[in-house]
């Protein structure tokens, strides 16, 4: 590595006013878009690509990376405040983020999310800077068998995110898997649970409308029910926020979660087709399993928010690794960025490190600037964001409902998706009413199709010989870790159950 060129490239980017301004504008737009359910970071980047036509390459990339990083953090704002993930990768943040809001700690939850997102993004960018060729080479070793076992490994954290009852968590996961089978078989094109005339469901239920329905619409329906019964308590956030970043005591407490989440996010983000949706749940499950007090996870603790948000933004650096090193986008956002590079006459790939090394280093620096810009925007807006929970519920719920339905429609410009959103909202409300966790459903909706497709591809390649998968060291590593995670999660769950039983006994006695 040419450290002299690296330093000069960083200096050039950090001292360029146009790059700084465009990245800040992008981060502001990304945070605002990410906070709106349905308006994903991918959509934001795609919308602003035309505005970068007249710019030089690095300011244009800075603008787009600002949206990318800002959107990743922005999704946590609505996840924490109104139990509605703004982006799919913020879904795991609701597990501890929203309980913190209900406990009167909305400001702390937002500051932890912002700080963790920033640290995760910086760590991901540093790993990308120094290890991208090595990680890219490892990522390209992933075939259908390795991707299938990666999905199995991701599904192994279902126990960790099942809440108080593993049985209810597994039932939720079963429902999620069942929902995944609706539509055409991805391998043979056979219609399942539908007829070929039902064109709106040929590709199954749209993921974003289902996500918005299960969290946003279900929350609104549940809230309206409580208002009618007189049970809804108005949340307030009138406490003065003296600091926009967590204090040192909190930082020391969450730092291990930030570090592990960032590393997990970066490495999973570097695997083409994986992305932040998987990384956040894997990070949450891994950190909960490693915790000394797993019974506190899901009740509203900063560690849970830190573990998901650091993984979320760590993916931004990870997804850039295969894009720059191999010309293969790591996720949907980097696929749009690939188009932006080509539009500027740059072809990402192995030769980029030979013929355009200064540009590679400037992109590294632009990602650093994007994370700094996200931190600036977050610090400036955290006091404003916390005021949302103080709005009267009778005014807030209609606004959430309208934004949610608009977000569901905006994905595919399809009215049917609005019906899907409402249907999943009713389904989510019923699940919440009987205390069935929604996170396992979401995880299976993400990993189910990935698991099925890669299993079918592997079996076709190896002519039905499933035992061939044991010849892959990577696949066997994922399988071994998945088994260990399941065993350890069950042991942890037993510990949690004992703790909850003891607490209830003490309360009964008093």
Q: In brief, what are we looking at here?
A:
With 510 residues, this protein is an all-alpha fold. Helix content is 71%, strand content 1%.
Report the strand count. Answer: 2
Radius of gyration: 22 Å
Proportion of β residues? under 5%
Q: Which spans have pLDDT < 50 for at least 5 consecutive residues?
A: none
Can you tell me the overall shape? globular
Structural class: mainly alpha
Q: Topology as H/E string?
A: HHHHHHHHEEHHHHHHHHHHH
Count of alpha/pi helices: 19
Largest sheet: 2 strands, antiparallel
Total of domains: 1
The percent range for helix content is over 70%
Give the end-to-end Cα distance, rounded to a whole number of Å. 66 Å
Largest beta sheet: strand ordering: 1-2
Could you tell me the mean pLDDT? 81
Your description of this structure?
- By secondary structure, the protein is mostly helical.
- 71% of the residues lie in helices and 1% in strands.
- The protein has 19 helices and two strands.
- The protein has a two-stranded antiparallel sheet.
- The longest helix has 37 residues, at 473-509.
- The protein is globular, with a radius of gyration of 22 Å.
């Amino acid at each position: 590595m040419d450290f002299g060129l690296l330093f000069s490239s960083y200096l050039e980017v950090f001292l360029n006013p146009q790059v700084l301004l465009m990245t800040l504008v992008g981060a502001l737009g990304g945070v605002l878009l990410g906070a709106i359910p349905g308006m994903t970071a991918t959509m934001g980047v795609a919308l602003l690509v035309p505005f970068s036509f007249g710019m030089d390459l690095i300011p244009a990339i800075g603008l787009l990376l600002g949206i990318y990083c800002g959107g990743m953090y922005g999704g946590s704002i609505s996840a924490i405040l109104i139990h509605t993930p703004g982006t799919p990768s913020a879904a795991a943040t609701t597990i501890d983020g929203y309980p913190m809001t209900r406990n009167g700690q909305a400001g702390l939850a937002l500051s932890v999310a912002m700080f963790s997102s920033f640290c995760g993004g910086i760590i991901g960018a540093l790993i990308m800077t120094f290890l991208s060729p090595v990680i890219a080479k490892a990522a390209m070793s992933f075939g259908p068998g390795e991707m299938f076992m990666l999905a199995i490994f991701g599904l192994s954290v279902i126990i960790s995110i099942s809440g108080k009852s593993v049985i209810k968590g597994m039932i939720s996961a079963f429902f999620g898997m069942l929902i995944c089978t609706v539509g055409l078989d991805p391998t043979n094109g056979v219609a399942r649970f539908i007829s070929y005339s039902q064109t709106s469901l040929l590709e199954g239920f749209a993921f974003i409308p289902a996500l918005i329905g299960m969290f946003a619409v279900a929350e609104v329906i549940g809230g309206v029910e409580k208002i009618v019964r007189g049970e809804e308590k108005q949340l307030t956030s009138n406490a003065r926020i003296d600091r926009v970043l967590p204090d040192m005591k909190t930082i020391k407490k969450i730092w291990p979660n930030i570090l592990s989440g960032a590393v997990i996010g970066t490495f999973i983000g570097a695997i083409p087709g994986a992305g932040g949706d998987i990384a956040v749940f894997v990070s949450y499950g891994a950190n909960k399993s490693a915790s000394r007090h797993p019974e506190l996870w899901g009740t509203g603790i900063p560690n849970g928010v830190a573990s998901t948000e650091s993984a979320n933004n760590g993916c931004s650096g990870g997804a850039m690794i295969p894009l720059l090193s191999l010309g293969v986008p790591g996720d949907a956002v980097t696929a749009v960025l690939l188009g932006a590079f080509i539009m500027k006459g740059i072809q990402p790939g192995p030769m980029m490190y030979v013929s355009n090394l200064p540009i590679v280093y400037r992109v590294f620096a632009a990602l650093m600037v994007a994370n700094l810009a996200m931190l600036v925007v977050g610090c400036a807006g955290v006091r404003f964001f916390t005021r949302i929970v103080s709005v009267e519920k009778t005014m807030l719920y209609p606004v959430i409902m309208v934004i949610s339905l608009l977000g569901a429609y905006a994905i595919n410009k399809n009215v049917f998706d609005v019906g899907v959103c409402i249907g999943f909202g009713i389904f989510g409300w019923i699940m919440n009413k009987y205390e069935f966790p929604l996170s396992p459903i979401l995880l299976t909706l993400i990993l189910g199709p990935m698991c099925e497709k890669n299993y079918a591809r592997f079996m076709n390649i190896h002519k039905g010989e499933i035992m061939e998968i044991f010849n892959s060291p990577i696949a066997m590593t994922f399988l071994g870790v998945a088994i260990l995670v399941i065993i350890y999660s069950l042991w942890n769950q037993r510990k949690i159950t004992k703790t909850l039983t003891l607490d209830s006994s003490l309360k009964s006695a008093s």
